[in-house]
């Protein structure tokens, strides 16, 4: 099983290396370390979001509301900053995490306590959160001159030669790795996705595990709300509109199975980086950015076809063993 | 998407069958009729411009195009699959119609290209899902990017305009008095889909597949073929909707019908179709389409911005699903 996952991640690493090599042929400066670091920094938000989405997909659910959660939380923290410039940024980040987690918990409660399918709940909250963004801002937007310099500057600061935004992503990757592989919470999320019935017999509350996963994805979306708004220096209703599908695409390309239970932190990160590299490379190799959508669509289809092959192989091996026994 | 319910409560076995009247009163469709009537009355009281033949006719344009897709999507979701690419199919079909227009294609040719593109896109989805055994939610997220992506590659930030006057009839024409061509087509399609789902063996097979596709397979239902046909039908309806929208707007942009897929699915779920498959009715979907059309039109008359309306659509979706569940918890019975 772990060999298969490693194979899948190695395949993705190879695909990314090939992609970078192909781009470098057209534009040699692309592979320079400074540029690759800039691409990573530009993809940081997608990386963090993909990790949150992965936790949800692992439990056989899906969170369509992440981008709307991001927009709503981003708008609220931007308004907080504009109206109370005295509040320190760490408190703003705490606010973003809390609001995001509360919105995620709203999804989670409906799924846990009422047993409504996640796709229906988050389809509803996708539009509710987006509409609420419009309502809390009164239809207006918050731009650079209403944000404090500290609010904008934090993620642009350098720490050990890397922008702070990149460090947010690195900390998230490490935190997710530890939580998913080394804690009961992470293992219960996997268990629920692999086999819910077995999870129940192992004493795991399936609904509660889903609830936790949605709190995590909400918290992550909230954090990214602050990061997004301070990065692009605008909080508006249309922020990250339709971005929920990019997040899911990153997970699918990263080998996270939509049927639940299969997926890794490394895979989700690589999937997000794959999309980030494509969107950063198209302008420098003179391909119209209008090609990006079709290319990521093709990448999703290729990834899902290849991953299905992997799963099928695994099934054959089990059958052979059964025949031999 | 195949969630396994592990906390299933012991099923209550009735000691006698409910009377048909009781069943009808407590049915999902009855609930939807009540909601529809309530919204109709509220709208009439809230705006003096609502209760008027032409206003009501304009109202129908809010749901006919999405409703046409919802009819086929309902069958697809009942069979346990889903298609998120329908809005992207509209964009691609509309773009190809625009290209044909540049090559001086006539109205019949434009319609054929629009519907044909939809059918081919649906077949492509169906082939990937049934031929390769891939999960439909992922496949159609992929084809959603692919189809609309191709539209963006062809059009970029440009637009196709100048559709012939005869082409305008589909989206702007009236069959009789205030009855538009779109409404007529929607009602006719609803009748066809009602018959197909509720009165043919094909319809029974769809329910069988949705409830237990393995059992259906062993009962001699060609599961893959039925699902493939349903994907083709959904694509076909998206193609038809593309002809209507392009005709109504008179222009094509690659961003046409953005976000429609979620509204169509909301319509289907609101109509009482189980997102897990196996249950649902065409009457429910038609009522849900009507409700969503009335809500958005009513708010529009009151100058409520579209984004605020979407809050109510989202709340409506969650409440209509959640309330019967809470009701069952409190009173131990669910309007089925």
From TrEMBL, chain A:
<dbReference type="Pfam" id="PF02653">
    <property type="entry name" value="BPD_transp_2"/>
</dbReference>
<feature type="transmembrane region" description="Helical">
    <location>
        <begin position="36"/>
        <end position="58"/>
    </location>
</feature>
<feature type="transmembrane region" description="Helical">
    <location>
        <begin position="245"/>
        <end position="278"/>
    </location>
</feature>
<dbReference type="GO" id="GO:0005886">
    <property type="term" value="C:plasma membrane"/>
</dbReference>
<feature type="transmembrane region" description="Helical">
    <location>
        <begin position="290"/>
        <end position="308"/>
    </location>
</feature>
<keyword id="KW-1133">Transmembrane helix</keyword>
<keyword id="KW-0812">Transmembrane</keyword>
<dbReference type="InterPro" id="IPR001851">
    <property type="entry name" value="ABC_transp_permease"/>
</dbReference>
<protein>
    <submittedName>
        <fullName>ABC transporter permease</fullName>
    </submittedName>
</protein>
<keyword id="KW-1003">Cell membrane</keyword>
<feature type="transmembrane region" description="Helical">
    <location>
        <begin position="114"/>
        <end position="138"/>
    </location>
</feature>
<feature type="transmembrane region" description="Helical">
    <location>
        <begin position="211"/>
        <end position="233"/>
    </location>
</feature>
<feature type="transmembrane region" description="Helical">
    <location>
        <begin position="159"/>
        <end position="180"/>
    </location>
</feature>
<feature type="transmembrane region" description="Helical">
    <location>
        <begin position="70"/>
        <end position="94"/>
    </location>
</feature>
<keyword id="KW-0472">Membrane</keyword>
<dbReference type="GO" id="GO:0022857">
    <property type="term" value="F:transmembrane transporter activity"/>
</dbReference>
């Amino acid at each position: 099983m772990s060999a298969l996952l490693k194979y899948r991640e190695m395949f993705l690493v190879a695909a990314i290396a090939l992609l970078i090599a192909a781009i470098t042929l057209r534009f040699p400066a692309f592979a320079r370390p400074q540029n690759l670091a800039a691409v990573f920094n530009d993809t940081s938000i997608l990386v963090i979001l993909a990790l949150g989405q992965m936790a949800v997909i692992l439990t056989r659910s899906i969170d369509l509301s992440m981008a709307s959660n991001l927009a709503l939380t981003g708008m609220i923290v931007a308004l907080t900053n504009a109206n109370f410039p005295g509040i320190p940024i760490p408190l703003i980040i705490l606010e973003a995490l809390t609001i995001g987690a509360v919105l995620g918990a709203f999804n989670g409660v409906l799924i846990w306590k009422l047993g409504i399918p996640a796709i229906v709940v988050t389809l509803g909250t996708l539009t509710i959160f987006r509409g609420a963004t419009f309502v809390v801002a009164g239809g207006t937007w918050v731009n650079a001159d209403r944000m404090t310099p500290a609010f904008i500057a934090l993620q642009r600061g350098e720490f050990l030669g890397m922008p702070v935004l990149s460090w947010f992503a690195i900390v998230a990757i490490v935190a997710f790795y530890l939580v998913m592989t080394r804690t009961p919470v992470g293992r219960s999320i996997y268990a629920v996705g692999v086999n819910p019935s077995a999870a129940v017999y192992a004493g795991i509350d399936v609904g509660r595990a889903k609830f936790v996963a949605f709190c995590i994805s909400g918290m992550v979306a909230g954090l990214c709300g602050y990061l997004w708004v301070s990065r692009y220096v605008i909080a508006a209703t249309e922020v990250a509109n339709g971005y929920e599908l990019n997040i899911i695409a990153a997970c699918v390309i990263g080998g996270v199975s939509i049927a639940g239970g299969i997926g890794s932190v490394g895979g989700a990160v690589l999937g997000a980086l794959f999309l980030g590299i494509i969107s950063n490379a198209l302008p420098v190799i003179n391909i119209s950015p209008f090609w990006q959508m079709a290319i990521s669509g093709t990448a999703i289809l290729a990834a899902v076809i290849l991953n299905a092959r992997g799963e099928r192989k695994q099934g054959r091996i089990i059958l052979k063993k059964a025949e031999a026994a | 998407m195949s969630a396994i319910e592990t906390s299933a409560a012991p099923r209550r076995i009735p000691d006698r069958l409910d009377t048909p009247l009781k069943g009808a009163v407590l049915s999902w469709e009855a609930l939807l009729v009540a909601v529809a009537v309530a919204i109709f009355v509220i709208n009439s009281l809230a705006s003096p411009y609502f209760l008027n033949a032409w206003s009501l006719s304009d109202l129908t344009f809010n749901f006919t195009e999405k409703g046409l897709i919802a009819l086929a999507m309902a069958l697809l979701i009942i069979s346990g699959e889903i298609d998120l690419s329908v809005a992207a199919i509209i964009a691609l079909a509309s773009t190809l119609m625009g290209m044909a227009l540049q090559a001086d294609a006539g109205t019949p040719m434009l319609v054929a290209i629009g519907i044909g593109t939809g059918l081919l896109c649906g077949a492509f989805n169906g082939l990937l899902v049934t031929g390769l055994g891939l999960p439909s939610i992922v496949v159609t997220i992929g084809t959603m990017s692919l189809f609309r992506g191709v539209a963006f590659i062809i059009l970029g930030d440009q637009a196709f305009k100048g559709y012939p006057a005869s082409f305008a009839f589909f989206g702007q024409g009236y069959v009789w008095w205030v009855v538009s061509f779109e409404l007529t087509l929607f009602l006719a399609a609803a009748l066809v889909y009602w018959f197909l789902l509720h009165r043919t063996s094909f319809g029974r097979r769809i329910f069988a597949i949705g409830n237990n596709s393995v059992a259906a397979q062993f009962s001699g239902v060609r599961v893959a073929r039925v699902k493939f046909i349903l994907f083709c039908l959904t694509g076909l309806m998206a193609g038809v909707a593309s002809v209507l929208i392009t005709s109504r707007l008179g222009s094509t942009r690659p961003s046409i019908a953005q976000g429609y897929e979620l509204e169509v699915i909301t319509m289907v779920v609101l109509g009482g179709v189980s997102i897990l498959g196996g249950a649902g009715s065409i009457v429910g979907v038609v009522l849900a389409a009507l409700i969503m059309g009335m809500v958005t039109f009513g708010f529009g008359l009151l100058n409520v911005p579209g984004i605020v309306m979407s809050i109510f659509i989202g709340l409506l979706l969650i409440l209509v699903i959640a309330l019967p569940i809470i009701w069952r918890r409190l009173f131990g019975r669910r309007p089925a």
